Amino acid sequence: MNLYTPLTQRSLELRNRLVIAPMCQYSAVDGMPDHWHLVHLGSRAVGGAALVIAEATAVSAEGRISPGDVGLWNEQQLAAWQPITRFIAAQGAIPGVQLAHAGRKASAQRPWEGGRALAANEGPWPTVAPSALPFNHDWHVPAALDEQGIAKVIADFRVATRRALAAGFKLIEIHGAHGYLLHQFLSPLSNHRTDAYGGSFKNRTRLMREVIVAVREEWPQHLPLWLRISATDWAEGGWDIEQSVQLAKAVKSLGVDLVDVSSGGVIAGVKIPLAPGYQVPFAARIRRDADIATGAVGLITESTQAARIIDDGAADVVLVARESLRDPYFPRRAAQELGVNIEAPEQYQRAW
Ligand code: FNR
């Protein structure tokens, strides 16, 4: 097994183990992907990745992180994604999408505008969360979701799944990480509920399980479903790797094919021990103990480093984010460095 061995996920074959991680572009108007998204995602497909996962895509307008987020909450958005998925697929890459709801971290500025909660004159919208606890002292106080609100979240994921299929996506990743809505339910630090959605592990994981069931019902059996989680909150009393292993076991039986293992994001001001491949041990642990395929992500920037993760059996795929912004052809460069021949687009063959 190596970085360039294909991987079967249900009826799909990933041509290698390198995946472009979802990356918000904050460049949409009214949730509509446009030429930027086509060129951004398309060039990474040309770059040789097996799978290109489109950024956190909101299942509802209120679930956007910022006013610039893309969405799949209406038919216009569905139609706007179609030429993008078609182009990615034409390059031999699989078009994937990350479905997301930002919960209490919604209604925020784009990072380059400050990344803080939208001010009163910047068009903020009401936010929702498991409990009425703001992300930080200067963030919006969310409304605690009631039963009806929870049902709407599940229904929004369900309908967005239907649209993702019609839009031409072949793989869905549910965003359960980085302190967004589903993670907010998982973590005791952000979930203080006393009903069936809070308290015990079973209750805190309930919304995520219900969302997965709804998505899996809509998503064809022959197509894979991935889940991104934060394996730990890096904080006392928070979500941790033990719970992540338990969750991975539970979601495997619900039809999740791979857990994409990230970390952090649920509370502000946490110190994360950043280092090359710092999250890889979490992916390895979940892969071993929950017996499910995993993805490793986070400060993976070199070909030999990526190859070692697969060789060691720490993960089944490697997701690359920032290195692919520096070099969209990272998968081609890595192949060259590792002495592997991979097909180049006909137009570019004289370069390789
Ligand atoms: C991200 N990340 C991210 N994660 C996610 O789950 N959904 C998203 O939409 C985004 N958006 C996003 C935008 C940008 C510009 C960056 C740089 C990152 C996190 C990303 O997927 C990845 O997990 C981290 O960046 C760590 O991997 P790298 O960058 O060290 O390879």
Automatic annotation (TrEMBL):
Q: Which cofactor does it need?
A: FMN
InterPro entries with a match to the protein in the record: Aldolase_TIM (IPR013785), OxRdtase_FMN_N (IPR001155), YqjM-like (IPR044152)
Gene3D superfamilies noted in UniProt: Aldolase class I (3.20.20.70)
Kindly name one Pfam family recorded for this protein: Oxidored_FMN
Please provide the record's keywords in A-Z order.
Flavoprotein, FMN, NADP, Oxidoreductase
Task: Give the signal peptide range.
Answer: none
Q: Which residues form the NADH:flavin oxidoreductase/NADH oxidase N-terminal domain?
A: 3-338
Alphabetical list of PANTHER family matching this protein: NADPH DEHYDROGENASE C23G7.10C-RELATED
Q: Which protein, by its recorded name, is this?
A: NADH:flavin oxidoreductase/NADH oxidase
| Source organism of this protein record | Dyella halodurans
